[in-house]
Structure formats: C-alpha cells, structure tokens
Amino acid sequence: MSNPTPSVGPGLPETQSLATDTVTAPAPPQPGKKAKDAKPASLWSDAWYDLRRRPMFIMSVIIILILLVMSAFPWLFTSIDPFDARSCDLSTARQAPSAGHIFGKDNLGCDVYAKVIYGARNSIIIGVFTTLVTTFIGSLLGMIAGFRSGVVDAVSSRFTEIFFAIPPILGALLIGATFRGRINSIILVIAALGVLGWPMTFRIMRAAVITAKNQDFVLAARALGAGAGRIMLRHLLPNSLAPVIVVATINLGGYIAAEAALSFLSVGVQSPDISWGLMIADARTRFLEAPLPLFFPAAFLSVTVLAFIMMGDAVRDALDPKLR
Amino acid sequence: MTDKERILEVRDLVKHFPLTQGIVVKRQIGAIKAVDGVSFDLHKGETLGIVGESGCGKSTLAKVLMALERPTSGSVRISGRDIAKAKGAELKHMRRNIQMVMQDPYTSLNPRMTVGDIVGEPYEIHTEVAPRGDRRRRVQELLEVVGLNPDHINRYPHQFSGGQRQRIGIARGLALQPEIIVCDEPVSALDVSIQAQVINLLERLQDEFNLAYIFIAHDLSVVRHISDRVGVMYLGKFVELGKDVEIYDRPAHPYTQALLSAVPVPDPEGREQRERIILQGDPPSPANPPSGCRFRTRCWKAQEICAQEEPLLQIRTGTGHESACHFAETHDVVHVG
C-alpha cells in the first residue's frame, strides 16, 4: 500500500519537451509546503503561499505558461509556417485529421494545427496589452478621483458612467468599423477594447482608494508632512492594488474572448494575420461538412479564457483575507 | 510650570463642521460645533491632560492642533507662529515641532511598509533632518529608545503585538525630535498591563527629551498619573482647567465632580462612603448646544442665570484654578472620609 503518486510521472504523455516541463513545474512547491515558514509574512507572500497549494491555480498557470511559450516561439510546436502560402493546398481543403496534419485542414487547405498555434500570439498580445492599458488608465484616474474627491471625483465618475452606458461589443464594433484599414488592426483592437474597458478598473481603484485614505496611517503620514504624491504612491497604491490585480487577471480572459468576437465580426484582426476568431469565422460557412476547423480554434479559445479567469479567481481567493 | 518657556499657545480655537442639505446646490443648515472656543497654553516639558466623554471634541481638537483640519477661527501658535495659517514649506517645517501618537496601533501603521520604512519615513519627508546614509542607524536608535529590538527593522507591523506597535508609532513621532507630542488616546486600545508600560515609556521619553505632551484620554486615572495639568472638556469647551491635584482633589465644576464620582475606587471601604453623582440624560447635540452654560441641562445646580449668561473659564472665588461655572465651589468627591 505504498503511495501511488510517483507512478503519475511516467504515465503522462512524453511526446513533447514541454510535457515534461509541466510535470516538473508543480513539483518544487510540494516540499516547500511541508517546510512551514516560521515567520508570518506580508499579504503578498501569504497569498503566494496560499496559491502554491491550489490545484486550480497551478493548472491555470501551466496552461498560461504553455500559451506564452506558444505565442513567443510557435515554431517549437509546428514545423509548418502558416504565413507561407505554399503550405496551403486548395486541393486538400477540409481534409480530415491525419498524421501530418493532426487537426486536419481548413477551407483553403491550410493546416489547422499550425494556424491555431500561431493564432495564440495575437490573442495573448491583445489580451495582455488591453489589460495593461485599461489597468493603467483606470488606476491612474481612479486614484486621482478617489484621492481628490469633491468636484474632481464627481466629474470623473459621471464621465466614466458615459462609457459604462455603451454596450461593449457594439462600441468596439463602431470604433473598429470606423478606423478599420487606417490603423494596424491589432493596435485598433487594443484601442477599442481599452477605451471601453478602463471604467471598470477606475471604479474598483476609486473605491479601494477611498477606503484606504480614511485609515489612520494616511492621517499619520499627513501629520508628518507627506505630500500628495508620497501619500498616493507609498500609502494608497500598495493598499488598494489587490482588487485591481484580481480584476485585471479575470478581465484578461474576457479581452481575449472579445478579440475573438471582434475578429469573428470582421472588425478585429484582419487576414492574412491569424486569429482564433478569424478562423472560427472562416470555418463557419462550411461547418456542417467540416466541423473540426471550427472546433479546434474554439476549443483553444475557451481553454485560454478559462485559464485566465481561473487564475484570477484563485488570486482573488488568496488575496481576500475574509476567505481565510 | 509657569516659569518655563511657553511653546504652544491656543486661543479661542473653533472648529465647526458644516451640515449641508441638497444634492446639487448644497446649502448650509447648521454646524456641528465640535470645538467651540478653546484656549490654553502648554509649556516646555509639561503634560496637559484633556479628558471628557465621547463626542466632546477631544479628537477634533487634536486634529486641529496637528493642522490636519483647518480651524474655523482662532489660532494655534507654536513658538509664536500660527500653524493654523501656515501653508506649504512653512507648514511642513512647523510639523517638525509637533507630532502625534494615534489611538489605534492596528490602523495607524501602514501594513505594506516595514518598521524601518515606517519609522524612517519622517526622514524621507524631511530630508534635511538626517543625511541618507545616517537614516538606518537613526531608525535603529529610535527602536532601541522605545524598547524594541533594533534587529526587527525589516519586519512588518502585523508581526508585532499591540503594545509593540504603539511603540513603533511613538518612535515615528519621535523621529523628527519634536518639542510637542499630541497623544490621542494612546493607550485606550491596549490591555491594562500594556497600558502601564506605554505610559511609563512616555514618561521616560519626556524626561529624556524634555517633551511636552497633550495627552487626550477618557480614562481619568491614566490622565492623573501622567499629567501636570488637566483640562476637562464638555461639548467643545473647557469647563475646568488646573493642576492635576486641583482638578482631582478640589474639583470646582459640577461636571468634573460628576466625572470623578464615576471613577472606580479600588478600596471597598471608601467605595461605601463616597458620593455618587449620577447625571441625567445624554449630552446635548453639538449641532444645537443649550444657551448659556452648556452643562445646565444636566446640572443639579442650574438656575435662571445659567440659561442666560455663559460662564467664562476663569478663576472664581473660593477656588484656586479656572472653571466655567457660575456656582463653582470646590468639593472633594473622591476623598470622602
């Protein structure tokens, strides 16, 4: 009746170098967890300690790491270059999966597997940069509104509500359709989602700052003669960042889904660039005869979005002291 | 004490918080008169205790003294200069002379900063006080002065107990070497055994650095222990001000007498004999204080004159210290028998 866990390793597929990485990745935390740190730590290290023991977090991080490697070095996963027109062969359009083309071929006879792999890059770039843009703008304005209060707060909050009133997909469609072809399509998607996404971060940051600024330590800093900049950067920001990070992580998945939606509606990423949304749109016309070219990008999209939302969820649980 | 140098001079200090109505166009319908005409002096190395029940304006007074709130009128002169009117660099410079120890040691320290950063922050704000390379050593010295292990400089506040945290708060207050420290209920959040340690620390620091304290509390015995002079506040005003023995042994104002009669007496014999004055009702709203004497609604001595004429804080016949009552007479409440 020995412990069955060691047998898990050899049982996993060893087809790719990455598969072994994923097995070793969660291993280090296991011994670390037993050596219980004697010193109680800060909120962040407490959260990190908590996260390392959550299977949901580990799983989502592994998926996200694979996706990051995939978008940085897609040629590690496939030898076919989908941007090379010679890799497509119209005569083999909608061919079923085979040894050489494990996900089959699409309407134009291109390899679906290679396109799905290369499509990760745009999704990740758009998700990450939209999150950075919305988090930066929303936090900056939210910090100022929450700190200044009064007229500044009232005006910026009403201004934010204007953006809240715009249905996101409709707004992004409008922006996308207006500027399509004039700006690089990826930058356009980031801008459209960014313009509509920052109000959420604004509200969360503003609320967190208002809570933080009424605490005694802010009063103590003012009594010492600290200026507004020091109070915002040293006292308010570190104490109101946690909810913003959580929302940013969860939203990242949402932005990836929104990118796919916009590309599907033909105002997002444009051909010959590759995007999962675009692939879904292309495969849609012949879905009944060949469902697989639609299924694979859709599955990758779902798993990616799910991974980010799961990670955000785990981070929220870890950072929320009430759930401990 | 009067022969010593006067470092803080508070004159007719008033702080009203406006009560407004309406959403878009706000109009003032009244004011909470939190502090309503307070005057006192503080001398070098002296402790002035301020007592009073909840909501009488003690903490607002502390905030106005610290220039965290602008007074509605009146002046707070520190070494001759009015901190209530100072701005910018002048205000910042004046803050070096008056610092604060706050009530709650759990919220007054930034949980994301290490002890070294918290105690060292005054030096980062007032860079002229200590050269950069010298700061760490100074912070460690301060930690040692307040009785903490200087090696704990890299720890976070939550790794300390309440009493230790309050010591960190005191070290932060001492960093700029102020002459005045405003202690706003510095021990009321601590266990009784820890209270004594912190009080003793404050007394030791006073001797060591010749500090002047404004010690705000609602615990009368703690105030008596540490104070040279005591002011009793009721609804935003001082009703009595004098040396600690005068206030505790020869209280002249009925409110002070009532407060003192509520202090627990640790002697069962004395407890049987002493007088209990039980006040009727609650303190009136500071938004709408009674005319004349503010205490008249709860006072057993109240006469016609109390409603018409406001008694001033002055030395009255038969008493050796200032009190604000038309019928002031000393009456030993606690030392019965």
TrEMBL record, chain A:
TM spans (from-to): 57-77, 124-147, 159-179, 185-205, 240-258, 294-315
GO biological process, alphabetically ordered: transmembrane transport
Membrane topology: Multi-pass membrane protein
Coiled-coil ranges (or none): none
InterPro entries, alphabetized: BP-dependent_transpt_permease, MetI-like, MetI-like_sf, OppC_N
Compartment annotation: Cell membrane
Region feature Disordered, mapped onto this chain: 1-38
This protein's record includes keyword Transport: yes
Keywords: Cell membrane, Membrane, Transmembrane, Transmembrane helix, Transport
Protein name: ABC transporter permease subunit
Organism: Nonomuraea phyllanthi
TrEMBL record, chain B:
GO molecular-function term, one example from the UniProt record: ATP binding
Record's keyword terms, sorted: ATP-binding, Nucleotide-binding, Transport
Alphabetical list of Pfam families matching this protein: ABC_tran (PF00005), oligo_HPY (PF08352)
Gene Ontology terms: biological process: peptide transport; transmembrane transport
InterPro entries, A to Z: AAA+_ATPase, ABC_transp_ATP-bind, ABC_transporter-like_ATP-bd, ABC_transporter-like_CS, Oligopep_ABC_C, P-loop_NTPase
Family according to the record: Belongs to the ABC transporter superfamily.
Classification via PANTHER family: D,D-DIPEPTIDE TRANSPORT ATP-BINDING PROTEIN DDPF-RELATED, TRANSPORT ATP-BINDING PROTEIN
Protein name: Dipeptide ABC transporter ATP-binding protein
